[in-house]
Amino acid sequence: MKFTISSKELLARVQTISRVINKKNVNGMLNNIMFEVKKDGIVSMTAACEDMTARTSCQCDTEGTGAFAVSAKLLNEALKEIAEQPICFVVNETTTEGCVSYMNGVCKFPCEGADIFPAINEDEQYNYSLTVDATIIDKGLTSTAYAVGNDDIRPIMNTVHFDLNIEGLVIVASDGHKLIKYTCMMPSCTEPASFSMPSKMVGVVRGIIGKVQNEVVGMEFNDRQVRMTAGDYVLVGRLTEGRYPNYNAVIPQDQPLQVMIDQQVLISALRRVLVFASDSSGLIALKIEDNMMTLNAEDLEFNSKTEEKIGCRYEAEAIRIGFKGSELLNVLSNINSDEVVLKLIDATRPSIFVPSEEVENEELLALLMPMLLMDE
Asked: What is the pLDDT along the chain (376 residues), one digit of tens a residue?
């Protein structure tokens, strides 16, 4: 059997689905990508691990039908070195040898039978469904994924949580120190439902969404797994079991103190001040009063400190609050807005960061826990 395909297209598809494959596998077959050549000229490629299976397919010039598996690592590394051109993929089913012919040469490699390769269970019954533009999923995951936790005791915190109802879609992630909530106010589900997507699956989904920006994403899910279709990609994965914490309960509903500040000015000042912060705590102190924000950092171990002042809009009583500098920088860098609004109650309770202007039908909220200032 053989098929002809663009080297660039094949590499893009192989790289996208290879995100599923674990670095170490007990089952050696899971180090491979399975190719299936069908009668109608469709070539499908499948990668899998114990918890996920990803498949993509495309139209090619084909001869014969069949299936085989080839090392994902070998294929990725070989395709990266081949310039954009049509390549011919030939597999001898008798000798189980694969051969790729391109303009200046040919490479040969061993193949394996695909009989025991994990297949997507097409008979799984799903209770809920969701249809939404790929751009919305992309925005939601980009805005929240960096806040996913790494908690061995509570694996539910190592997920991005999806809440769906007839009015909108809410995507949330939290590591216990920060919480990011993205809301798209549009009909998304026939009835209220929710699921928690493991962080590895989030990375795979983001890779697929990057290839199908103008497509519609379909999701079907039950208590155990989710099936996502986007363009000619299909991803099926196991969900994380457990009840996600009530994130709305930790979001303050009334913050009387509000500061508006230029995002890039604050980010630039924060990066300079962070150089002098303690390696152990990373503490940055903010003093806000009379339309001025003062940033302070100090490292007692090396007897170094710094102070920088920047303008803002704030006319309430003076307040001094501390944050872990790297976390604050992370939050600010992931808010797409010229100006950021910082909402406060006092120096000990959660602070809220929101863009000064929201996109229509969308809301983004970042909650960050403050750090104790030693002189308070």
From this structure: 899 999 999 999 999 999 999 998 888 889 999 999 998 899 999 999 999 999 999 999 999 999 999 999 999 999 999 999 999 999 987 878 888 999 889 988 888 888 878 778 788 899 988 888 999 999 999 999 999 999 889 999 999 999 987 668 999 999 999 999 999 987 656 678 999 999 999 999 999 999 887 789 999 999 999 999 999 999 999 999 999 999 999 999 888 999 999 999 999 999 999 999 998 899 999 999 999 999 999 988 888 999 999 999 998 999 999 999 999 999 999 999 999 999 999 999 999 999 999 888 899 999 999 998 876 5
pTM of the model: 0.91
Contact 232, 257 (CB under 8 A): no
- In this structure, what token pair is assigned to residue 131? 């249809």
Token look-up 């899998």 returns 48
The CA-CA-CA angle for residues 69, 12, 58, to 5°, reads 65
CA-CA distance, 225 to 236, in Å (whole number)? 7
Pair type for strands 216-221 and 225-230: antiparallel
| Pair 235, 53: CB distance under 8 Å | yes
The string of DSSP letters for 256-289 reads -EEEEEEHHHHHHHHHHHHTTS-TTT-EEEEEEE
Under 8 Å between Cβ of 6 and 86: yes
Phi, psi of 222, deg, nearest 5: -135, -160
Answer whether 198's CB lies under 8 Å from 239's CB.
yes
Complete domains list, the chain, with CATH: 2-110 (3.10.150.10), 128-249 (3.10.150.10), 251-368 (3.10.150.10)
- Write b or e for each residue in 8-44: b if 16 or more Cβ atoms lie within 10 A of its Cβ, otherwise e: eebbebbbbbbbbbeeeeeeebbbbbbbbbeeeeebb
Checking phi first, is residue 368 left (phi over 0); if not, alpha (psi -120 to 50) or beta? beta
Q: Rounded to an integer, what is the distance from CA 265 to the centroid of its chain?
A: 27
Count Cβ atoms within 10 A of the Cβ of residue 173 and give its class: 0-12 exposed, 13-18 middle, 19 or more buried.
buried
Query: Does residue 240 contact residue 156 with C-beta atoms inside 8 Å?
Result: yes
The residues, ordered by sequence, that sit 6+ positions from 219 with a Cβ below 8 Å of its Cβ are 129, 130, 131, 132, 226, 227, 228, 229
